[in-house]
Specification:
CATH class: Alpha Beta
Structural class: alpha/beta
Helix content: 25-40%
Number of domains: 1
Radius of gyration: 19 Å
Number of strands: 11
Number of helices: 8
């Protein structure tokens, strides 16, 4: 095994950050996504600007788009106002993504919950990204301000269910933590989706790259992770090919478009009770879509 290059120290991260205005969102986009009923939904995705996530995952660079200090009171509702003003008013689903965990109180101030919910009350579904260990009464303190007809969905960064690899990602969680979070969400009648890495970094808890991990092993554990989250009642999963610049030195190669295609088709055969998506990043998805969508049933989109 060889040591992994250390991530940029928190004390030096300010020099590499791209945001400063606490009252402006990072971005807002309109997209279409397959809903649980099999129909395409108009989805508004808001990328909010807030305090950096306390977890320092080895494969993540989202901290570059965050603040050093706790998010000021009132900033998030103002960001949502700005973001929604740039989008059509007929959205059906809204995703509030904040480069971390929505229920980190330093990122999203709980005192802003009523104002946030008032702004998104018209949507039929609200999707919030969160860490499994933060799935508890903090979520209910937010959702109690939503209409009873609003469907809530928690998006969890599962990444992989390989115990050793997951431990090495420095996410401070285990498969048992993820299962507990999913069970808690189901008890509240919330839906749950998973983010799964395609070619997860193979790193030990001692921050060392595990050698001799084959491409087949990486693919197999992606598929095992898809099967696992479906068995735990997740209603959707997104495969995220790891970008080359986020792979620790020596931990393997980023997946090619052909590898994404092969894994997605195999995963689609497993995911017969949940929706499956692929986040193509800056890949050209045209050929990928052409092949994948020819494979029935059509439950996977890119």
């Amino acid at each position: 095994m060889v040591p992994v290059n250390q991530t940029i120290a928190r004390s030096e991260r300010s020099l590499h950050k791209t945001v400063s205005d606490t009252h402006k969102p990072i971005a807002a986009i309109r997209e279409e996504e397959l809903g649980p009923d099999g129909l395409l939904k108009r989805v508004d995705t808001l990328f909010l600007n807030n305090k950096e996530c306390p977890f320092q995952c080895v494969m993540c660079d989202l901290w570059k788009h965050t603040l050093d200090e706790p998010t000021p009171l009132g900033a998030i509702p103002h960001q949502i106002d700005i973001a929604l003003s740039t989008l059509p008013s007929d959205g059906q689903v809204i995703k509030l993504y904040n480069s971390g965990n929505f229920f980190d109180a330093k990122a999203i101030p709980p005192k802003d919950y009523p104002e946030i919910c008032a702004r998104i009350a018209r949507y039929e579904r609200v999707i919030l990204e969160n860490h499994p260990k933060l799935c508890d009464d903090r979520v209910l303190a937010f959702t109690k301000h939503l209409p009873s007809t609003t469907r809530v969905e928690l998006a969890l960064g599962v990444e992989t269910v390989h115990p050793q690899w997951l431990e090495g990602l420095n996410k401070s969680m285990t498969p048992a933590d993820i299962e507990r979070a999913a069970q808690w969400a189901h008890a509240q009648a919330f839906d749950v989706r998973a983010f799964l890495l395609l070619h997860a970094p193979t790193i030990s808890k001692r921050n060392e790259v595990l050698q001799d991990v084959s491409l087949e092993q990486r693919r197999d554990w992606t598929l095992k992770s898809v099967k696992w989250v479906q068995e735990k009642g997740f209603t959707a999963a997104t495969l995220i090919p790891l970008r080359p610049d986020l792979l620790p030195e020596g931990s393997g190669d980023a997946p090619t478009l052909q590898e994404v295609e092969r894994t997605a088709i195999a995963a689609k055969k497993i995911a017969d009770r949940m929706r499956l998506f692929v986040d193509c990043w800056d890949m050209d998805p045209s050929e990928l879509l052409k092949t994948i969508n020819s494979q029935p049933p059509k439950t996977l989109t890119c």
